[in-house]
C-alpha cells in the first residue's frame, strides 16, 4: 500500500496543471523545435512533457517502478522512454527505494545515510531495494546526438551521472538540496571542468530564474553556503557562453 500511496502522491504533486503550465512556459526560453533534450530521472514525466511542448525531441530515463511502467503507458509516443538510470558506466546498480516518498529514492548510499538526519527527511524511510540498469550520457549522445539540454534529478547521484559525460552540452540542470551543498559543489566543479559554464538557480517549482545575471562557479558555491539546510530545494541551471 505504501508504494501506491507514494505513487499517487507524486501524481498529485507533479501533475498539477498550474505547475505544468509554468514549466512549459519556462522551457520555451531554452528549447526550440527539433532540439534534443535528455530528462534523467523523469519520475512521472511532467518535465519531459513540458520539454516536448517546447518542441524538443525528448529522451526520458526512469528506472524506478511503478513510474517507468506508468510512463510507458502514458507518455506521448514521440518521447523516447528508456527504463534505466544514468551513471559512470554501463552496468547494474542497486537503488534504495522509499515507497512512501519515491522522489527521494537514490542510487547513492551516502546520500541515503546522510538524509536520515537532514531537515525535511525526518519521516522518510528507505524500505526497499531495486536493481536497475545503468547507461551513460556519452552512450545516449552516441545514439541520439549532442542534446541542447540535459535535466538531471537523481537525489544526490548527479555527480555520478556527469562522470559519464565527456562532451559539454549547452545547458544542464541539476537538483540542488541546501542540506547537501557539498554534493552541488562537486557538480559545479565537474561542469567547470567540462566547459566555461555559468549558473542560475530556479527555486522550488517556480519556473523562473532567481538572478538577472548568470554567475560563475565560486559565486554560486558561496550562495549555496549561505542557505540554511531547511531552505527550499530547486534546480541549478548551467549554460555555456552564448555565441556572439
Any overview of this molecule?
With 244 residues, the chain is α/β, with parallel strands linked by helices. It has a single domain, classed as Vaccinia Virus protein VP39 (Rossmann fold). It has helices spanning 2-14, 17-27, 46-53, 67-74, 109-115, 137-144, 158-163, 181-194, 217-226; strands at 36-40, 57-61, 80-82, 85-86, 91-97, 128-135, 149-152, 171-176, 198-203, 234-239. β2 (57-61), α4 (67-74) and β3 (80-82) form a beta-alpha-beta unit. α2 (17-27) packs across α3 and α8 runs antiparallel to α9. The radius of gyration is 17 Å and the shape is globular.
Furnish the topology, listing elements before pairings.
Elements: H1 2-14, H2 17-27, E1 36-40, H3 46-53, E2 57-61, H4 67-74, E3 80-82, E4 85-86, E5 91-97, H5 109-115, E6 128-135, H6 137-144, E7 149-152, H7 158-163, E8 171-176, H8 181-194, E9 198-203, H9 217-226, E10 234-239
Parallel strand pairs: 1-2, 1-7, 2-3, 4-6, 7-8
Antiparallel strand pairs: 5-6, 8-10, 9-10
Helix pairs in contact: 2-3, 8-9
Keywords:
about 240 residues, alpha/beta, Rossmann fold, seven-stranded mixed beta sheet, three-stranded mixed beta sheet, about 35% helix
Rg value: 17 Å
The biggest beta sheet is recorded as: 7 strands, mixed
Supply the CATH superfamily name: Vaccinia Virus protein VP39
Strand content: 15-25%
- Order of strands across the biggest sheet? 3-2-1-7-8-10-9
Report the uncertain regions. none
Percentage of residues in helical conformation: 25-40%
Shape: globular
How many strand segments? 10
**Could you report the average pLDDT, rounded to the nearest whole number?**
88
Structural class: alpha/beta
The CATH architecture classification is: 3-Layer(aba) Sandwich
- CATH fold title: Rossmann fold
Highest CATH level, the class: Alpha Beta
The count of helical stretches stands at 9
Give the distance, in angstroms, between the N- and C-terminal Cα atoms. 55 Å
**How many structural domains does the protein architecture include?**
1
State the order of secondary-structure elements, H for helix, E for strand. Answer: HHEHEHEEEHEHEHEHEHE
Amino acid at each position: 500500500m505504501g508504494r501506491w500511496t507514494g505513487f499517487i502522491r507524486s501524481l498529485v504533486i507533479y501533475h498539477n496543471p498550474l505547475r505544468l503550465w509554468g514549466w512549459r512556459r519556462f522551457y520555451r526560453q531554452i528549447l526550440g523545435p527539433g532540439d534534443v533534450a535528455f530528462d534523467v530521472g523523469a519520475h512521472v514525466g511532467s518535465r519531459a512533457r513540458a520539454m516536448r511542448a517546447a518542441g524538443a525531441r525528448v529522451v526520458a530515463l526512469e528506472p524506478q517502478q511503478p513510474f517507468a511502467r506508468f510512463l510507458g503507458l502514458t507518455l506521448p509516443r514521440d518521447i523516447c522512454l528508456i527504463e534505466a538510470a544514468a551513471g559512470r558506466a554501463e552496468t547494474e546498480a542497486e537503488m534504495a527505494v522509499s515507497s512512501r516518498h519515491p522522489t527521494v529514492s537514490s542510487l547513492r548510499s551516502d546520500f541515503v545515510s546522510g538524509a536520515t538526519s537532514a531537515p525535511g527527511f525526518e519521516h522518510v524511510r528507505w524500505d526497499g531495494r531495486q536493481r536497475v540498469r545503468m547507461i551513460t550520457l556519452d552512450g545516449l549522445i552516441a545514439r541520439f546526438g549532442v542534446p541542447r539540454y540535459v535535466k538531471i534529478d537523481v537525489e544526490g547521484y548527479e555527480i555520478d551521472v556527469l562522470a559519464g559525460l565527456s562532451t559539454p552540452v549547452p545547458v544542464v540542470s541539476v537538483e540542488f538540496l541546501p542540506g547537501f551543498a557539498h554534493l552541488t559543489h562537486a557538480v559545479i566543479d565537474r561542469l567547470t571542468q567540462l566547459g566555461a559554464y555559468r549558473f542560475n538557480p530556479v527555486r522550488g517549482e517556480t519556473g523562473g530564474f532567481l538572478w538577472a545575471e548568470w554567475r560563475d562557479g565560486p559565486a554560486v558555491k558561496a550562495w549555496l553556503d549561505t542557505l540554511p539546510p531547511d531552505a527550499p530545494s530547486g534546480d541549478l541551471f548551467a549554460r555555456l557562453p552564448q555565441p556572439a
